[in-house]
Amino acid sequence: xxxxxxxxxxxxxxxxxxxxxxxxxxxxxxxxxxxxxxxxxxxxxxxxxxxxxxxxxxxxxxxxxxxxxxxxxxxxxxxxxxxxxxxxxxxxxxxxxxxxxxxxxxxxxxxxxxxxxxxxxxxxxxxxxxxxxxxxxxxxxxxxxxxxxxxxxxxxxxxxxxxxxxxxxxxxxxxxxxxxxxxxxxxxxxxxxxxxxxxxxxxxxxxxxxxxxxxxxxxxxxxxxxxxxxxxxxxxxxxxxxxxxxxxxxxxxxxxxxxxxxxxxxx
Length: 267
Fold this sequence. Notes:
By secondary structure, this protein is mainly α. The protein has two domains: 20-137 and 235-267, no CATH class; 151-232, no CATH class. The protein has 13 helices and two strands, in the order H-H-H-H-H-H-H-E-E-H-H-H-H-H-H. Strand 1 and strand 2 (107-110) form a beta hairpin. Helix 3 runs antiparallel to helix 12 (236-254).
């Protein structure tokens, strides 16, 4: 199985996870979307040296993984390309800032190392929370929720079309790669001199396919907007879910819970 086929299957697996009959999946999509935005704001707003507070905010995604039944290991595997790129942020901070900072178990952390760990964990948490939203909410419901809070229709429609047709683009890329390798037996990969013609060919075919897709959408009544009235209204259970988790996230953001718990055990 090629890497492109594996990527297509992983996207299909995420869509299947979002369509499961789990109680987290049945929570109103607007509630989960707003909760994720609140969590992202709280994580990003933490200071560059505020490692304990960021570690406390890590409780939310781990709890959501347990409640939603999504395997944490599979999430790390599917995000194996994104997470290393996120962790690169601040990797040179320990070399640039060697001032002594916190002391943990007899080991002194420099301010540069502290800021690097904080930035890495913040990036990992933001990616995991976004993955939780997509893996527990069908993309149609998510787009409808975005239109309910009046996010510009251009952004919503672009997001929907990219998600729907990126697998089609990857399948076309796989066909192009297979056709090239059949005409170049024994060659490993695609020669650099052929990258330009192949990309140009894929661009022209993509434009033709995009025109066909747009004509089919227009024939089915597409007017340039995404209808937001296809999902149910939020109920009492959704409100309780949002209030409880939002209060927990704000509590973790305001108070360094891990430091407070550690001081209780220490004293």
